[in-house]
């Protein structure tokens, strides 16, 4: 078991397998995109597998595959089978925008994928295009229905943005009436790849909840799973549930059990902090497993108390305007 310097157990790694994405969501990156990393700078599948073997031996039990858009990386399904075979890894989850996912869902079911987080900020085709700069809503919805058909638990992640998609809060919430889906509304964060879209955070946790309560006065607080980032709510008569993630106000840091590894092998012990370890360079220097464990333990033993402390300790004390596709979803 891994325990950080604040007594929090770490058992969950979010692993970005690519920094590439086939959408251009304005809150994640500029319209022209970002400068993608050369392939040689990315972790290879073999390097990722060895890293996960070491982390699993230390106590990591849950892996979430992210990007960029993970299904843009060639041979990802074969890599998922290799992760599944690692002793100690009990759960594999995936975060995807759904554009390429639908045809792969039967094999994801065979793999035993625990859940899929589907990024979906609008159910309106025009607003979806305005946000993502791509006309791909039909393919995303095909993925949504295919996941439900194959009984793979689905969580919808919707970033709430003033002047962009607040009209979608209630339509997205209505999905929970008919479908066993968790719809999670996320406060906008400043990770936009330098597009200077400063989030005003007018639509914070409380305002999102007020909007839901106006239409659903019977909405009630539900139990949260341990280490949950979302506060969950139930609506009478609905088979699914609602979640609200205070990603910008950062109210869940005290129970955070996750670490992030970027596509180039940077270890982040907090979303808002700098990389604290270059795993890629250690792996390519033929570092022993024991030395890798020691490096991990040192990083985990110097973890920020919360996202505000991590942001204060960044090397460049400026607002954070990285693309989420380079951070790791």
UniProtKB/TrEMBL annotation:
Reaction equation(s) it catalyzes: GTP + AH2 + S-adenosyl-L-methionine = (8S)-3',8-cyclo-7,8-dihydroguanosine 5'-triphosphate + 5'-deoxyadenosine + L-methionine + A + H(+)
GO MF annotations in UniProt: 4 iron, 4 sulfur cluster binding; cyclic pyranopterin monophosphate synthase activity; GTP 3',8'-cyclase activity; GTP binding; metal ion binding
Cofactor(s) required for function per UniProt: [4Fe-4S] cluster
Family annotation (Gene3D superfamilies): Aldolase class I (3.20.20.70)
GO biological process: Mo-molybdopterin cofactor biosynthetic process
Keywords carried by this UniProt record: 4Fe-4S, GTP-binding, Iron, Iron-sulfur, Lyase, Metal-binding, Molybdenum cofactor biosynthesis, Nucleotide-binding, S-adenosyl-L-methionine
Annotated SUPFAM superfamilies: Radical SAM enzymes (SSF102114)
Domain Radical SAM core as annotated: residue spans: 5-226
Protein name: GTP 3',8-cyclase
Organism in which the protein naturally occurs: Adhaeribacter rhizoryzae
Gene assigned in the entry: moaA
């Amino acid at each position: 078991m891994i325990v950080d310097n604040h007594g929090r157990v770490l058992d969950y790694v979010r692993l970005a397998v690519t920094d590439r994405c086939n959408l251009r969501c304005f809150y994640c990156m500029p319209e022209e995109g970002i400068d993608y990393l050369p392939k040689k700078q990315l972790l290879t599948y073999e390097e990722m597998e060895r890293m996960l073997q070491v982390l699993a031996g230390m106590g990591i039990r849950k892996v979430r595959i992210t990007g960029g858009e993970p299904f843009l990386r060639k041979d990802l399904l074969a890599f998922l089978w290799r992760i599944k075979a690692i002793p100690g890894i009990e759960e594999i989850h995936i975060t995807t925008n759904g554009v390429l996912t639908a045809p792969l869902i039967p094999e994801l079911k065979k793999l035993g994928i625990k859940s899929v987080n589907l990024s979906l900020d609008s159910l309106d085709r025009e607003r979806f295009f305005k946000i993502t700069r791509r006309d791909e809503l039909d393919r995303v919805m095909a993925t949504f229905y295919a996941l439900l058909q194959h009984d793979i638990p689905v969580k919808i992640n919707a970033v709430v943005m003033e002047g962009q998609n607040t009209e979608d809060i209630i339509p997205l919430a209505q999905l929970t009436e008919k479908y066993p889906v968790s719809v999670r509304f996320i406060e906008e964060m400043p990770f936009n790849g330098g597009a200077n879209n400063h989030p005003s955070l007018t639509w914070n946790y409380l305002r999102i909840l007020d909007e839901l309560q106006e239409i659903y006065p019977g909405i009630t607080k539900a139990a949260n799973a341990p280490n949950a980032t979302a506060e969950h709510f139930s609506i009478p008569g609905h088979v699914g549930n609602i979640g609200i993630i205070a990603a910008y106000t950062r109210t869940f840091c005290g129970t955070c059990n996750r670490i992030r590894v970027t596509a180039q092998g940077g270890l982040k012990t907090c979303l808002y902090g700098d990389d604290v370890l270059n795993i890629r360079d250690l792996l390519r220097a033929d570092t022993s497993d024991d030395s890798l464990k020691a490096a991990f333990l040192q990083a985990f033993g110097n973890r920020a108390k919360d996202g505000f402390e991590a942001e204060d300790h960044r090397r460049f004390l400026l607002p954070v305007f990285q693309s989420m596709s380079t951070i790791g979803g």
